[in-house]
């Protein structure tokens, strides 16, 4: 009986030691992080338009500022001024370079408009990074919801090697990229923050398929917050 008690005591002590180590590692990891400070554009509108009906596939606006987001120290926007390509190489309005030019205003002249149907824009980060978050503005001059928003990363420009999906709200697979579990959301001046958990990639591709406003696709700015990937 005593030997059994000693075994259980040993197991308990070992468990407490492991919990202590895990707690120390967690605290160390948190200490190595800091709050990301985003430079946001001015709000263009307030409230939710009454003509857009909330569905079970939509994220209900909270009406509150976005909670703080922690990332490893040294994290910065590595997409600024990086090359942009697209499924629509002749935009209806604007230039593809506007996707990463740093202009996030919701006014005319600050966005690129692509044709109807499923379209994508792609950013070449020019080297691999540990990506911790993306911040995306389609168009925030008014409240609208963009459909089939899918974000993927890959190691090659043709999206063949090591393709991974970091966001997908295509709930019915109408874009053919798989059924997504993320929710559709209303555009706003804060942009949509998409955590990526340190995923390593060079290329970022963002899909959309029209919005509640019209069939066109718009991109105002895409920011990629990352740190250098280990060599």
Helix content: 10-25%
* Strand segment tally: 11
Overall 3D shape: globular
Radius of gyration: 21 Å
Uncertain regions spanning at least 5 consecutive residues? 21-29
- Let me know the CATH homologous superfamily: Galactose-binding domain-like
The CATH C-level class name: Mainly Beta
Alpha-beta classification: alpha+beta
- Helix and strand run: HEEEEEEEEEEE
Major beta sheet summary: 7 strands, antiparallel
For the terminal residues, how far apart are their CA atoms? 55 Å
Reported CATH architecture: Sandwich
Give the mean pLDDT: 89
What is the strand content?
Answer: 25-35%
Stated plainly, the CATH topology is called Jelly Rolls
Tally of separate helices: 1
The tally of structural domains comes to 1
Summarize the structure.
This protein has 231 residues and is an alpha+beta fold.
Q: If you had to describe this structure to a student in words, what would you say it looks like?
A:
The chain has one helix and eleven strands. It has one domain: Sandwich (Jelly Rolls). Strands 3, 4, 6, 7, 8, 9 and 11 form a seven-stranded antiparallel sheet that branches. 13% of the residues lie in helices and 31% in strands. The longest helix has 30 residues, at 2-31. The protein is an alpha+beta fold and 231 residues long.
State the main characteristics.
231 residues, alpha+beta, Jelly Rolls, seven-stranded antiparallel beta sheet, 1 helix
């Amino acid at each position: 009986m005593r030997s059994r008690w000693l075994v259980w005591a040993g197991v308990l002590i070992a468990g407490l030691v492991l919990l202590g180590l895990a707690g120390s590692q967690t605290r160390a990891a948190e200490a190595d992080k800091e709050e990301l400070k985003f430079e946001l554009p001015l709000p263009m509108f307030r409230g939710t338009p009454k003509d857009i009906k909330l569905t079970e596939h939509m994220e209900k606006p909270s009406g509150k500022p976005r909670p703080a987001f922690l990332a490893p120290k040294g994290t910065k926007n590595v997409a600024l001024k990086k090359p942009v390509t697209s499924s629509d190489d002749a935009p209806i309005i604007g230039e593809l370079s506007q996707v990463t030019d740093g202009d996030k205003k919701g006014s005319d002249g600050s966005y690129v408009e692509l044709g109807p149907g499923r379209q994508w824009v792609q950013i070449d980060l020019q080297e691999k990074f540990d990506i911790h978050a993306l911040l995306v503005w389609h168009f925030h001059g008014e409240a609208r919801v963009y459909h089939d928003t899918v974000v993927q990363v890959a190691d090659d420009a043709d999206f063949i090697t090591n393709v991974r999906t970091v966001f997908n709200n295509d709930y019915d697979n109408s874009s053919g990229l798989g059924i997504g579990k993320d929710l559709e959301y209303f555009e706003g001046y804060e942009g949509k923050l998409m955590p990526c958990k340190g995923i390593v990639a060079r290329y970022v591709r963002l899909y959309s398929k029209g919005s509640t406003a019209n069939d066109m696709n718009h991109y105002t700015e895409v920011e990629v917050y990352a740190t250098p990937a280990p060599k």
